[in-house]
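In response to a reviewer's request, we include the raw inputs and outputs for one of the modeled complexes. The three entities were modeled together in a single run.
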Amino acid sequence: MTTARKIALSLLLVICGASVAANLLAPVPYAEQFRDLPGSPPSTKHWLGTDNLGRDRFSRVLYGSRVSLLLAPTAALISTLLAACIGGAAGFLGGRIQRLAMWTTDLFLSLPWLFLLLAVRALLPLNISPQLSAVVTFSLLGVLGWAASARIICANSSSLRNSDFVLQARASGLKTPRVLAVHVLPNLAPVLLAQFWISIPAFILAEANLGMLGLGVAEPLPSWGSLLRELQSYSALSFHLWQLVPLLLLISVVTCLQILLSNKELTA
Amino acid sequence: MKKCVRHFAYLLCTLLVSWNASAQFGGELRFCIRADPKTFNPLLVDEEPSDTVRYLTGGVLARVNRSTQQLEPELATSWKVSDNGRKITFNLRSGVYFSDGTPFSADDVAFTMRQLMDPSLHSPTGDAFRSSNKNVTTQLISRERVAIAFPEPVAGLDRLFDQVAIMSAKSPKKEMAVLGPFYLADYKPGSYVLLHRNPNYWKRDADGKRLPYLDAVRLDIQQNRDLEVLRFTRGEIHLINSLDADYFDRLSDASTASARDAGASLDSEQMWFNQVSNAPIPAYKKAWFTSTNFRRAISQAVNREDLARIVFHGHAHPAVGPVSPANAFWFNSKLKPQPYDSQAALQSLAADGFQFRNGVLKDREGNSVEFSVITNSGNKYREAMAVMMQQDLAKIGIRLNVVTLDFPSLIERISHSFNYEACLLGLVNNELDPNAQMNVWLSSASNHQWNPEQKVPATAWEAEIDKLMHAQASTSNAKKRKHDFDRLQEIVYEQTPFLYLINRDTLIGISNAVHNAEPSVLRPQTYWNIDEMWLQGRPQVASSH
Amino acid sequence: MTKRIAKHFLRILLSLLVGGLLAATLVRFAPGFEVDERELDTRLNQQSIVAIRSERVAEPGLAQFYLHYLSRLLHGDLGVSRSSNRPAADLIRERLTVTVREIGIGLVAAWFLALLMAVPAAMRRDTPFDLLFALVTGGLVSIPAGVLAVLFFLFSWPASLAIALVLVPKVFAYARNLLARGYAMPHVLTARSKGLGETRVFFWHVVPTTAPQLLALAGVSVSIAIGAAVPIEALCDQPGIGQLAWHAALARDLVLLVNLTLIVTLVTVVANSASDLLGAAMQRGNA
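The model returned the following structure tokens for the whole complex.
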């Protein structure tokens, strides 16, 4: 393992470990508002200062890491698996199945899914727990986020259909599901890993915007997306370094994942 | 101390400069509107961008001076309200012409009123005059004298004409021929609206020179408030009509002349509970929400001082009721904001059989007290207030779930399906006269938010409110009206159908280059006297590009 | 080839018909469709509010609306936008060039920057290059669109660059991995070991094997660019189709949304069909 990969893995483990141990590491509850100290700079009591409502930023970053690091990769996995199944199978089987699958994918890419999200919000009870709202949000993102990469995977899978090793596998009597699982899927890994890596920050940021529709992680539970919303205004332009911690964390995790996942391309 | 010296020095300089400076003609004033105007017909205006264009281009018979809050003559030199508010007679100014040269006369006033009172119009301007379904009649006494008669008394009749822009009965340009200080010169959808000086504007300054001083007004269409503030700091725009509290502090630090706090506005932020009898919510929750003790307890448990201090950075005040203290005449000064008292809240709840044990509040049936509050997404202040109320209520064992929804979904719940428990919204008051709130207080009205469109008043106090509103609307005696509306405010205070939270301050931005601006809490806050405002420096040639 | 093109044309037509219907369905049955913001205007009296509500309720059902819409469309009438009170055709025509320019420039810039990083990263895996580009793209993909919008306005950069910066990490991630896999192919390893120049290896051996996938990525990047244009234009106040779509969605403007969905469907299907055709042609060439 190269040095870069070791560093990436260590950093990732530290961040994940800190989020898992949030209960032990957080000095104060994440929802508690210290109303005498709204928007205060770092101090011995509040290591990363407080937000505009006086909540300890360090505690919120820890608990937010837990939500985002657990749910965003899960949603990314869902979307990647869906893309792999639909795109991979369609490309491999070819013909009408491929054409129908890609036609459906194109339609999926074009539709205003905002309204489906609104409908889901309307169907959900108003009094759901923040945890459940977080799970529902990320699940929706996972289910809706497969279409773009499915096309690329289909093209990839289509080119593998007539490759030598696949023809050989089929000629030796292997059934299609086994050929797909053992021979095709591993060769789709580069695209699948790219899809997985790119989806994580996209879903974290999308979750924050879904708050506009009544979805997203409900208050007072923090997430990286909601913490990053602090930065999205002109008043944040006089930001201080401690306000950037959620952004730096996200960049670190995303970069570390890319470094760890990027060497997994296989030879044909 | 340093800041005080700086303020004083600046004030002194400003006074010296303004004493020496005489108004300059020319220049293009720029500020932003949030969206494209939906109409240029002044009678159909029902949203802010169109209202801005109407204000700048429309000539009215009488105008409320936003500084003194008194009604002043404009196109009418005088008027008389008679028959207990059923009739108003105007004496019109002579020698006035529309922007296209068409002469102005009583005929135009009659034409405008006929258009306005068309029952199919459905505009806020027209509805303000509509006290019954019977016809409104206009009588042309002479070329410069017109009388308008209404079937029923109209409360505050003369002041309503502040919103009525007179249209030409004869001009081929129809609503594009105007009597205001500016006329519409160019409109690029999604980009800007450009207004040029009306060469036939009737008003002159003290030296006899025809107003306005400005050559043009450019309204840039900008929805993003961050970008609006950035452009203001760069000097690309001259005014910000409504500034957020965090931007205010930032601009204040930069230059004391740019950001101003004009004091408490007429608007309020409030929460209410769903009291609709057939709402799809559990029966035990309906029982909570219809209990005065419960509502009062929630009101007592909310720390309004903290909301004003933290969410609005001190640029807000705890609210008392439907009328802001800025509305000096109509505000019931005997009432004080509900003080924060969680112990008193628990006592109010105990009176209804609620019990607070192990940090959880339960009703007499053993149900944990938990409810949701919906508010519109994108309003960071309401979201912040809801989160602060979450902590306040947690202290008395109540779990509050905050749900932000896009506006159509929210309206759907509060007006159609009634599938909600509590709602946090604001009330925008454009009028000082409480008669404008008729459609909030009448129990049969659609905007009687907590329980709209009642066939008969559900409670005795709502029946009393109905009576009071009808009584104040049917007389022009200011003292009697004040007495009735004071009583209404007392009832609302006792029964708490709305939990009034705060009155925001009117925060505005005015560039140092703008002179004669007199910020007001009444809309439009910064440019209500636009015909007398002028720009310092070399006049810029008005352009459209 | 002609038959193939004709099939794609029919496919596009079917996509438009079905896409428009599905979009109309989603909007029509979304919560808040039958409401009007004016209902909360306390200045309106009860009769006006009842009249406003009746207007909404009187709107035709889904099937009737769509058939009526299609028959008008055949005459070039795109309907009237409910939220703006203006013909949808005028609104779209005024704004289309802004978005086309932004997306066009954004796509070209994104691909240029992404390939500029992806090619060296793929050629020299596990080097400081790879690490640096991982950091750059990791940073870009993590910055919220709202922050980009404010920064871009602050420095007076064009919105098309914001779209490019949103696209770069996505294009880079796929392109880098596809090209890296291409470089790992046995025939490429053989070519390199035999001393073939890097440029020749890249254009003659790597690109042909990865071209179908890269073309698919190109087609998909058009959809991603359109998706990115909506929040960028809304936040940067650019008067383009994206901003129009956002306002239409908030206002539940059915006519405008169906029109915009048809445009997006057309662009998406054409872009992906073109990439499919080219990809298939290249695969046949390689075979």
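As requested, we also summarize the result in words. Chain A touches chain C through 63 residues (CB under 8 Å). Chain A has a mean pLDDT of 87.
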